[in-house]
Fold:
Amino acid sequence: MKAVVFPGPEAIRVEQVEDPACGPDEVIVQVSRAGICGTDIHIYRNEYMSHFPLIPGHEFGGVVVEVGDQVKTGVKVGDRVAVDPNLYCGYCEFCRREQSNHCLNLGVVGVNRAGAFAEYVAAPARACYRVPDSLDDGQMAFIEPLACVVYGMKRLQVPPAEAVLLFGVGPIGLLLLQSLRHRGAGPLVVVDKQPDRLALAAQMGATVTLEAGPDLAERLRELQPHGFGVVVDATGVPAVIESAF
Ligand SMILES: [Zn+2]
Ligand SMILES: [Zn+2]
Structure:
């Protein structure tokens, strides 16, 4: 099959590689669509836990073309599935503390095992979720980042009509913004450095959009003199997180 390969840091090639083999508890997914994530850029620059060579790609959906003989989840050939790329062991100290994001044996599709920037990818059947035909392939590739946002919303427990300040409206920030709007939160004040992103945020339901600048704190105080009920960071920049306090 054809695959995108990172042969080493800061290198990328399209190569002919072996088709993946299907393990007994795995399925083979023919990839329909895969998203490019900020994490892929970190992997490319060798700033992440990956080893080279690697086929990247962890945000994807596709069609099941082969099912291992020990699979018990009911997934069938022809099913459209989205795949949770984070494969927790379930038995290490952290998994047993329900902190599986710290799993000592974590496998991640497209990060430390072959990913979805390829025609086919192998994945454990337990990580596959059937997708209805009402979602198209592009939407299917967005399920993984949206799942991260849905989990964040579960942790946040934002009450209706809560004033929210959101830093960063890249893809994750825009998904958060729409989720907050659906939750009934508002006003939704968003801050970013890029005017085009702010324009998109305004279309997607931001009440106020502000370009980051030296007078930001003052402008925020004018809008919400007693502060915001919830502040969300979707930048990952430590200085921004510190400023939220
Ligand atoms: Zn990602
Ligand atoms: Zn574990």
